[in-house]
Amino acid sequence: MRERITILNPSSSHDGVVEEVTDDSVTLNVKPDFLIETRTTAEYPEFDTIQQLRIHMIEDVDLGKYNVFSYNYLTGVSIYAQPKPGASPDEFYDELEHVLEDIEGVAVNRHQWIHTPQAVYFHDVLDSPQPGRTPVLDTYYAQGVKVTKTVETAKSRHLHFFKKVDHYTEIGLFLVDETISSRDDVVLSGLRWVFDPEYPEDPRDLHETLFHIKPRHRVLANSDAATKIVPNGLHPIVKTEFHVAQLPKDDDLKQCRLYYYAHLTRHFIFDKYQSVPSQASLVATHGETNLELPEYAVTQGAEIMFEFPLNYTGPIELTLHSRYQKPDPKAADGVVEQLVVPPKLFYACDVDDDHLLAKSPLDNKRQIGGNYEGYFSEDTVFYHFADENSGGPVAVAIPVAHGSYQRVQWLTQGALVVGTLMILTALVARVFRWSRTPKPKQE
After folding, report:
1. Are residues 282 and 185 both part of a single domain?
2. Which residues contact 188 (CB under 8 A, 6 or more apart)?
3. What is the DSSP secondary structure assignment for residue 185, as one 8-state letter?
4. 382, 217 Cβ separation under 8 angstroms
5. Is 288 within the bounds of a domain?
6. Residue 405: its pLDDT value, please?
7. Are residues 192 and 125 in the same domain?
8. For 366-390, b where at least 16 C-beta lie within 10 A, e where not — what string?
9. Beta strand 380-389 pairing with 217-230
10. Does the pLDDT at position 261 exceed 90?
């Protein structure tokens, strides 16, 4: 097993951070705003029918000014799976269902998957943040290897790391050298300790390290974006307003566009003929396309992405169409609440020297996963808003029939029977009158 622990110090100095280093341990004195990414790589039995599987669970977390740890994905649980060539669909979905339930504790049946060009995809909202739950978790399975990444803030003042048998551990303490860093060239300066069972060395012989990364995900200074729900009965409006002091402008950029990516739960309909916002072009839409089905007859949601001109200033208004909800006798005031996941708004730009993007040890792009990342080529970088008030899912009130589902069904069927009888009665009466009408006598 290999473990790489990267600690990002948000200050301008490491003074006082290294508390103690011994032959088999390192102790650091940190503050609550230190970010820690842990990357674990281990052998894992290869799946029979699954080529790749990726799961990322994201909560709303501040990743810092330079976005060194880039997990700018939708909040919630996103799962991507790709079958092996020639795999039977039935066997693939059976194995996928068992793997997710047994290993990850997530229950997803074959009818809930959305088919996208890169993989089958599932998304679900997360409930409110839970104590002890890691705000960022990214797990990837492929070719008999499992890679797990987590990001969290320091939970205690002292961090202790120990040498483990048959366990390669690399500990890095870094800060961003702002005197020589830019958005397209972030310089990390710091210290590294290595516990390697094959090549033991004295950890007190630390490695002073300075390296450059070309970030795939970047943050726009003096920018903000906020999304809110405008109540509108069965057609709530997702309204996103944004402001940016300066559009993306770095030395390595070629061309840029503004993009809007969202996932809709099964409670809402996206109509590509009516719901595309002003000045937007629909780039991608996958998921349930039947606009007539009620909510209780639908098993999957939909993902959508729009492209806007670079200089578009908004606001962006996406009008949703609520599916008819299952009648609920407990619905207060005749409404039920369903959740809307705030969209991701970002600029995507082509760059020069794109081969440097994947060389960053902190780059997260994979062949599958990453929400919107899969729709862009390898030479694309993304610019995010510094103050992005997206957060977790937002509750939307939807009108619903009051009463039990069975009662509404009986009333509906009763009304249908009564209406049918009325029509038949009218037809019979008309036929009867026609048959009683006297015929004129012939002379």
Report:
1. no
2. 68, 174, 175, 176, 177, 209, 210, 211, 212, 213
3. B
4. yes
5. yes
6. 46
7. yes
8. bebbbbbbbbbeeebbbbbbeebeb
9. parallel
10. yes
Structural domains counted in the chain: 3
Name the residue with tokens 């504790």.
105
Q: Do 38 and 81 belong together in one domain?
A: yes
Contact 270, 263 (CB under 8 A): no
Helices (H), 32-105: 89-99
* Segments forming the whole domain that contains residue 410: 406-434
For residues 100 and 112, membership in a common domain is answered with yes
pLDDT digits (tens, 9 = 90+) for 18-37: 999 888 889 999 999 899 99
d(CA 142, CA 83): 11
In a domain, 155, yes or no: yes
Alpha helices in 223-343 (DSSP H): none
Q: Give domain status of residue 441, yes or no.
A: no
More confident residue, 413 or 43: 43
Contacts of 355 (CB under 8 A, 6+ apart): none
Are 88 and 187 part of one and the same domain?
Answer: yes
Cα gap 437→435, rounded to integer Å:
6
Distance CA 203, CA 371 (A): 40
Give the separation between CA 63 and CA 338, rounded to whole angstroms: 28
**392: CATH:** 2.60.40
